[in-house]
Prior knowledge:
The complex is a heterodimer of chains A (620) and B (463). With 620 residues, chain A is α+β, with helices and mostly antiparallel strands.
Amino acid sequence: MRDYDVIVIGGGHAGIEAAAASARMELTTALISGDLAKIGEMSCNPAIGGVGKGQLVREIDALGGVMGYITDNTGIHFRALNKSKGPAVWSSRAQADRKLYREFSQHLLLRIPNLSLVSGMVREIIALNGRFDHVILMDGRTITSSACVLASGTFLNGLIHIGEKQTPAGRVGEPPSLYLSESLQKLGFQAGRLKTGTPPRLDGSTIDFDRLEKQPGDDDFRPFSLLTNNSLTNRAFCYLTYTSKLTQEVVERNLHRSAMFSGNIKGIGPRYCPSIEDKIHRFRDKERHQLFLEPEGLDTNEIYINGLSTSLPEDVQLDILHSIAGLEHVVMNRPGYAIEYDFFPAFQIKPSLETRPVEHLYFAGQINGTSGYEEAGAQGLMAGINAALKLKGDEPFYLDRSQAYIGVMIDDLVTKVPTEPYRMFTSRAEYRLALREDNVADRLIKYGKQFGLINDNIYDTYMAKRQMINAEKHRLGRTMVLISQIDSSATNGDKCSLALLLKRPAIRYCDLAGVDEVCREFPADCGEHVEIEVKYEGYLDKQQREIDRFQQLESKIIPDDFDVRKVNGLKTEAVGVLHQFRPVNLGQASRLAGVTFADITVLMIHLKRHTNGSVSRETP
Amino acid sequence: MTLPDSDDTIVAISTPPGYGGIGVIRISGKQAFTIANTIIDTTVNISDVKSHTIHYGYVRGTQSGSITDEVLVAAFRAPNSYTGEDVIEISAHGNPQILKQIVSLAIDSGARQAAAGEFTMRAFLSGRIDLVQAESVADLIAAESAAFQQVALYQLSGRLSAYIGSIRAQLLEIGALFEAYTDFPDEEIPRQQKGELLAKLNDVTASLSRLSSSYRRGEIIRAGVQIPIVGPPNAGKSSLFNAILAEERAIVTEIPGTTRDTIAEKIEIEGIAVRFVDTAGLREAVDQIEVAGIERSRREIDAANLLIAIFDVTDDPIERIRSSLFDLMGKYFIVVLNKIDLVSESDLASLDYELGDCRPVFLSAKTLVGVDKLVARISSVMRESMPISGVDTNVLTNKRHFLAVQNAISFLTEARVKLKQGESYELMAFDLRQATNSLEEILGKITNDDLLAEIFSRFCIGK
Lengths: 620, 463
Ligand SMILES: Nc1nc2c(ncn2[C@@H]2O[C@H](COP(=O)(O)OP(=O)(O)OP(=O)(O)O)[C@@H](O)[C@H]2O)c(=O)[nH]1
Ligand SMILES: [Mg+2]
């Protein structure tokens, strides 16, 4: 008799989603965390969402995950980014109250039946005959289960750098789990090393906010979660400030003392979220760099300074801060630091996130080389769902690149070895126009319902809304109006449909209210949805043709028993790469570096024969 | 359509069918050397010979001790061969019977008869050449003119691919900028950079437009200049056709309506293939065959690069020319007045005076007087009005490439308009991706097996 069906190691954002999903799919689940009070901790900035990431949060939500719901309930500042651009890249972002987020997460988990929170540090993962068996904790306890999701974040063999100083740690003040990484390598996993940085934390009562530009939240923010009925209130402001000439001088003068520049860090840092010393050094010509001051919570004065990640020594950090407008007299609560940690390049996992060397063991989050809560949460959810599906004897759940950002991310992970922590961007998604925040439910809710993670109520509400939108689109197509009513330059008497009017870039759905009764009554959020679908229609059609073509290769499955080393005619390089990554279909194979289209054609020919069953002519 | 297996060893006769001085059999694949060793007696063991060496030997017959032919064996080891695989080329005497026997011996030893274009397809699959280069191989074999052969060689050298590749790289660079601004929250492209971007987009579009407009030239280079000879029945179309070819190709009689079906022949003028077409005389058809023939003539007229409109000087030419001018409008044409042997010099002079505007060529298809003047006129029209020079530059000769370039241009045009109108970047990024995809399709970076099967099926066996 096993203690649990599923063990989830780690109480970060991946662990929370994995544990919640598996327990809600009716499997007894244990979430093991070093300190239960730290479950749901936001180790970096207490912000959720952002460009490409807001999409992930909404996708998690449509599949029945919890991140969006927690954020709606603990956010203090909500804003839609990129509103000046098209709806495909509108991205939601929220600033949460760090403490509230943690507490809300813990309460939410405690209320889920089948889920136990277990305090303890995992020391070793034990597999028997290539199959996960149990974990051993630091205190010697053994916990058995049928499956395990490893989501242990920065804790794996972490090394913190502040200037010349190095401290082994996970997050500041917590011990690293040295042993776990070793244990995985013993199981045959190959480790790599990555680096990420954090900015200093400031005492808000010492900041001169009056001189800074205020950034209010949006009043009409659409909640992240389908579960949230109420509208959200902004209870805090963010502020904008900039680095100065003096900042540049301080950084240049002390560059040699940065952990990054002195070569102390072996991992590779994220390109898109570079340290301030990196930014100033690389973009010497740029006079100033934008910085955001973000509140960490309602009942704390602590301020997070977004854009100022650094691994310079403490005294230099202070000099830098004092060179910035509004921060001349700031007190630094905690210095920024860089942390390097082990990750396990994801060619060792399948697209279901199950590891190849150990069956029923799943990897989620930073361990796979990603950075960010949203990326971690999405993987946690997928790992939790897949661990549960497998125990129930069901097929694994995949999303492809045309279905979701989650699909894009996992596909990227299993086809590339990251050289820097993987962070989501909209430009990673080639079918971006179809992967929008407004249509997450259209894309994903059916899966959430299928797994029992979305309840009938939510589903029915969605369906009703969807039907309303369809009916309205139909109505707009048939309702003719005089163009001159809305566009004074039009010829008198010319008529066109409301849909055609709405296709014009300058005309919004709410503008139609001026000429049409029904539009005035129609709910605003549904109106926006209608508008996006009407305006994007031409693009979506073109995109759909691309997707159809994409799916031709995706649908050509490479069976598990297919041995690329036996395929003649493939280039040696291609064989090596294919053998290492073991793509599950030809589409995935085509995205591997070193595999050309010619190789894909060769594979295609062989697969046809393989599936036709005449595999007999293989050379010994 | 499906693609053939790619891991067995294939064999085929690589020289054209029929009798010849020598015939070459090509074997490609893992077993090429062992198969050659099995079927050929040499002083060396062919399995062990070095790449790029030639050996003398005998092909063994089917009966023990018998000999099929004495041959030369050329050995090429992977990857330095036409296909990128191990290749054996056997040069035997060019008797089709002998060649067929050698092929069946190779098949008995484990080779498979190659499908059309399969050697070239393997060169593509081994990554030795890209799709444009593979297609140019078929062109090179089919080339009927010096100009087309030049263009095919240019494409085979990979220079057209490299050029398209460089345009693709520029598109990727511009696209990356749109992508970056899409992902920088609430950032707009600065006005100055917008100007630069627009200039870059214009540049790339201009390059692609030049490429796309080269297709007209490319078509002429590939398919030749189409010159139908049209005119009323009995004007002497068939006679002129024969006179130009210097061969009694078409039937000539005094009965109007002799020519029922179109007949075409190619000759080379100015290094370009010129396809002359004898057509059925255009009149109210008297029977169904003639209706069909006239329909074909019309089609030839539509596809013409240059028309020769021929009239009988003795048969009311002025009125007939007037009434056909409307049909000729918008096309290059040369008016020919035939049968000058039947009229006097002074009649000709007055006709010349009246028809001066259409610069008619006076000739006699019967006595051949003036035919050389007509050929000279054709050359000069080709030189002046048809872009046939510059075969050593990037010329599109393939419709597939042309359509893809057109597609790319239309997406880039969209992107430019949007950039000017200040629309949102993700839409321009979308257009740029589509444009890039189109170019990648040309090179065979993204495509599908149906397309490949179709392309390679156009080849002949043995290539
Ligand atoms: N005297 C003379 N007779 C010619 C000349 N060219 C053609 N003919 C005669 O004109 C008659 C018709 O010639 P074709 O070449 O058959 O004329 P066509 O235009 O092809 O006629 P259809 O095919 O019936 O439309 C034949 O009897 C030719 O011998 C010429 O230059 N001089
Ligand atoms: Mg005739």
